[in-house]
Amino acid sequence: MKPESHSIANVLMKNASFYIPPFQRAYAWGKPEIERFFGDLIRIIKSELNPNEEQKLEHFFGTLVLKEEKHGFTQKSIVVDGQQRLTTTLLFLIALRDIETNQVNKAKITNRYLKSEDSDFEDNIKLKQVTKDWEAYKALVNEKQAIPGIIKTAYQTFIKLIKDTKVTNADITSELYINAIQKLNVAVIYLDERPHKGEDPQIIFETLNSLGKGLTLADLVRNFILLSLDSKKQTNIYENKWQPKIEAELEDCISRYYRDYLQYKMACSIKVVNDEKVDSNTKEVYQQFKDYVT
């Protein structure tokens, strides 16, 4: 495990492509989180414009956990944790590009942050979203109309924030926003590719998500199964089997289905799972599932 400190802008420029595995949750940041992110950018910009401040403000933006995966001449960064931060930053950059009137600046944003010739994803897009978000995100990167949903709503929120700020702060340019992105610092943890180094991405994923809103049994099982595969197999299995045959059919009943399935296979009584309860037995049932698979 190699922790490094970088600005999120440098991470986006340096890495050719990012892959968010299907087991990850879809994009979930709403207006409060987006406004907080934008407020942090504005504070950095105002610090930059303040001649009385010698030490210009920077901001710690959290952690990214990446695992490099090589495919021939290309290399993907698998996003084990931090996909919400990456997606939010890129949605902001898309909105900034679309408001920008200078064609050279628009092209720079696209070519530095949104697309890469070394990406093997569709249209050379750098960040491959989870299936649920992919079409909307791809449309925005390609400057097309996105389908309604949380991705489009976040993008529209950024458009409004940038435009409203321009009315009251005409001196804030796209260059200043880009400079602010370069001062959003993240702790990037690169997982060791070598076997037997104690860096199981599944365990790390579970540990990083042990705080805040807990993972459901459905989240944990999906992660356990898919994270053992490489990115191409993950995508194939998720899009052709997992999503249409499990998630689309069962919707909010997936955790209960897994419990029933496990009870049937083990031929023993297992308590009903309630993911919403604080004292839920989700982790207990998940451990039983892992023991059964092992």
Mind explaining what this structure looks like?
With 294 residues, the protein is α/β, with parallel strands linked by helices. It has helices at 8-14, 31-49, 83-99, 103-114, 131-141, 150-168, 174-181, 201-208, 217-226, 231-250, 254-266, 282-293, and strands at 2-7, 18-19, 59-71, 74-81, 127-128, 184-190. Helix 3 packs antiparallel against helix 7, helix 5 packs parallel to helix 6 (150-168) and helix 9 packs parallel to helix 12. The model has no long low-confidence stretch (mean pLDDT 86).
Mean pLDDT: 86
User: Mind telling me the C-alpha Rg?
Assistant: 21 Å
Largest sheet: 6 strands, mixed
Based on Cα principal axes, name the global outline: elongated
* Total count of strands: 6
The computed structural class is: alpha/beta
Secondary structure blueprint with pairings:
Layout: E1 2-7, H1 8-14, E2 18-19, H2 31-49, E3 59-71, E4 74-81, H3 83-99, H4 103-114, E5 127-128, H5 131-141, H6 150-168, H7 174-181, E6 184-190, H8 201-208, H9 217-226, H10 231-250, H11 254-266, H12 282-293
Parallel strand pairs: 2-4, 2-5, 3-6
Antiparallel strand pairs: 1-6, 3-4
Helix pairs in contact: 2-6, 2-7, 3-4, 3-6, 3-7, 5-6, 9-11, 9-12
Briefly characterize the structure.
The protein has 294 residues and is an alpha/beta fold. The chain has helices at residues 8-14, 31-49, 83-99, 103-114, 131-141, 150-168, 174-181, 201-208, 217-226, 231-250, 254-266, 282-293, and strands at residues 2-7, 18-19, 59-71, 74-81, 127-128, 184-190. Helix content is 53%, strand content 13%.
